[in-house]
UniProtKB/TrEMBL annotation:
It holds the Pfam family tRNA_U5-meth_tr. Transmembrane segments: none annotated. GO terms for biological process: methylation. Belongs to the class I-like SAM-binding methyltransferase superfamily. RNA M5U methyltransferase family. The active site is at C367 (nucleophile), C367. This is Class I SAM-dependent RNA methyltransferase. It comes from Roseibium salinum. SUPFAM superfamilies: Nucleic acid-binding proteins, S-adenosyl-L-methionine-dependent methyltransferases. Keywords: 4Fe-4S, Iron, Iron-sulfur, Metal-binding, Methyltransferase, S-adenosyl-L-methionine, Transferase. PANTHER family: 23S RRNA (URACIL(1939)-C(5))-METHYLTRANSFERASE RLMD, RNA M5U METHYLTRANSFERASE. GO terms for molecular function: methyltransferase activity.
Length: 410
């Protein structure tokens, strides 16, 4: 493997530096545009890179685990170019689908830290390791700090570890979803061995001692000390164990503001892939809403929240698989506006139905610029005109980006 000097010209979509060489792109982990790097090169990747010229945009990472931990990829880049890079990811995805539209500046929405985290635990001899996987590895980093998480999760890391130790399999990993709620932590273990049942008394005792709100294992609630409540714009919701909620409150609010502005004065709105009601509960204050969601737990959580809610207009819901059974043209007729917020796979089948519908306004929310661009292309080809595209940065230092796009039919 020959060593040579290369110059980084751009950041890739995962945050690696890219040098464009005569033999193709070379990916350099941890390098920034403008930097020159000395490294061995094999299969398009730099090995043991040494940065020779530093970028003025390079900053000190804020976490002691950063070098190893795969949870973050861009702590070493200053905020302004970091937000610009996220903006570029969205613009590029649109460009790849032939959509030439000015993308708004990235809205930072990481304040307060992530209230929802998925950690992994495993055994290392007699110890328990709890954290995230190392960069490009299956090994776990045992985290003692994590500046991107809500502080209440960080201060509970030791407690979570001792809880996980009760049911860790001899080999393999345990997934732990943690949600910081107004009543304390909601902890959901996933992929626990059946044998955990003998540890239920010990787990229950620990949950109470640790002051956590609820513990669930493999989707079943084991003990609810207090309902793990989230305040959704004044309405209390108790999410399903391990269920989806926006990872930061700041992003939930930023996305909701953009969704509400997007639907404008619509009187009837369909909220598709509605989860536990992040948008529907807010939209219900200004319009009649029909929420559609595929996950039974999320639908049940939404139903309960609706019963507690006051002063909403008519809000209805249904459980439905929108990949297999999107709302078809006739079903879309009653709506002035449709909001959709699918998982990473996007909403192709639904976009195809919207493209032949008469719905005036579509607000597309996405966590994947590539599938969003595909769905926007379908809508634009069906006669919609883009009004705005706004990236929202919910996952600090990661390559993830949320986007809200508003389209109208003339
Ligand atoms: C990105 S989340 C958005 C949830 C909600 N809009 C929010 O902001 O909290 C995507 C949602 O789509 C749901 N979902 C995934 N696949 C689905 C499908 N095939 N049909 C309907 N809903 C689905 C998930 O359960 C999840 O609630």
């Amino acid at each position: 493997m020959s060593e040579r000097e290369i110059t980084i010209s751009e950041l890739g979509h995962r945050g690696d530096g890219i040098a464009l060489t005569e033999s193709g792109p070379v990916y350099v982990s941890g390098a920034l545009p403008g930097e020159t790097v000395r490294a061995g090169i094999a299969e398009g990747r730099a090995r043991n890179p040494i940065i020779e010229t530093r970028s003025p945009d390079r900053i000190e990472p804020i976490c002691g685990h950063y070098e190893r931990c795969g949870g973050c990829s861009l702590q070493h880049l200053a905020e302004k170019p970091y937000l610009a890079w996220k903006h570029g990811l969205v613009a590029k995805a649109l460009g790849d689908r032939g959509i030439d539209f000015p993308v708004s500046e990235t809205v930072p929405a990481t304040e307060g830290g992530r209230r929802r985290a998925v950690l992994t635990a495993t055994r290392a001899g007699r110890h328990t390791v709890l954290g995230y996987h190392e960069k490009a590895s299956h090994r776990l980093v045992d985290i003692a700090e994590c500046p991107v998480l809500d502080p209440s999760i960080v201060s509970a890391l030791q407690g979570l570890k001792s809880l996980a130790a009760e049911i860790l399999p001899k080999k393999g990993e345990l997934r732990i979803a943690v949600l910081a709620t107004t009543a304390g932590l909601d902890v959901a273990f996933d992929k626990a061995d059946k044998g955990y049942e003998s540890r239920i008394p010990a787990l229950s005792r620990k949950i109470v001692e640790l002051g956590f709100a609820r513990l669930s294992v493999n989707g079943e609630v084991l003990l609810e000390v207090r309902p793990p409540m989230l305040d959704m714009n004044g309405i209390g919701i108790v999410p399903a164990p391990g269920g989806f909620v926006q990872a930061t409150l700041a992003a939930e609010e930023a996305l909701s503001r953009l969704v509400l502005a997007g639907v404008g004065k619509a009187k009837t709105v369909a909220d598709l892939f509605s989860g536990a009601g992040t948008f529907a509960l807010r939209l219900g204050a200004i319009a009649n809403v029909h929420a559609v969601e595929g996950d039974a737990g999320a639908v049940a959580a939404f139903d309960k929240a609706l019963r507690r809610a006051q002063g909403l207009k008519k809000v209805t819901f249904e459980r439905r698989d929108l990949f297999r059974r999107p709302l078809v043209r006739g079903e879309l007729e009653p709506y002035d506006a449709v909001v959709f917020d699918p998982p990473r796979a996007g909403a192709q089948a639904q976009a195809e139905q919207l493209a032949v519908s008469k719905v005036k306004t579509v607000v597309a929310v996405s966590c994947n610029p590539a599938t969003l661009a595909r769905d926007l292309r379908i809508l634009i080809d069906g006669g919609y005109v883009l009004q705005s595209v706004t990236p929202v940065d919910q996952f600090a230092f990661s390559p993830h980006i949320e986007v809200v796009a508003v389209l109208k039919r003339e």
